[in-house]
Amino acid sequence: MTSSIEDEAEFASLFEASRFATTTKIEKRSAAERRASATEGQRSRGGRARSVQMNFRCTPAFKAQSAGLAASMGVSIADMLEEAVAALAKRKGFKGAE
User: Fold this and answer.
1) What's the pLDDT tens digit per position in 45-93?
2) Buried b vs exposed e over 35-57: b needs ≥16 C-beta within 10 Å?
């Protein structure tokens, strides 16, 4: 008959790192699964995740024009607006918020 201490040691040995995936391997697999489940737009931003929401009112014509331009570019409205603002800032020589 085995003691409870021996039983506990045997049970704990089942979960040793050498027998199953190491923490590093688990983290790498989790990162790979997150990348695989990302949409094409998320992957194309290369780690620049959007974390802030911006809302504004516009005319129906501006909304339609924005949606049409984004569709013709094959990107989302947010991606199109980011590109448009970056181009305008470059044209105006704007370096960033002060």
Assistant:
1) 665 677 889 999 999 999 999 999 999 999 889 989 999 999 999 999 9
2) eeeeeeeeeeeeeeeeeeeeeee
Instruction: Give the mean model confidence (pLDDT) for residues 21-49.
Output: 73
SS3 assignment, position 96: coil
Q: How far apart are CA 77 and CA 60, in angstroms?
A: 14
The two structure tokens encoding residue 40: 């094409």
In this prediction, residue 17 carries a pLDDT of 56
Q: How far is CA 60 from CA 3, 18, 36, 42, in A?
A: 77, 62, 36, 27
Q: Are the beta carbons of 50 and 16 closer than 8 angstroms?
A: no
**DSSP letter string over 34-48?**
HHHHS-HHHHHTTT-
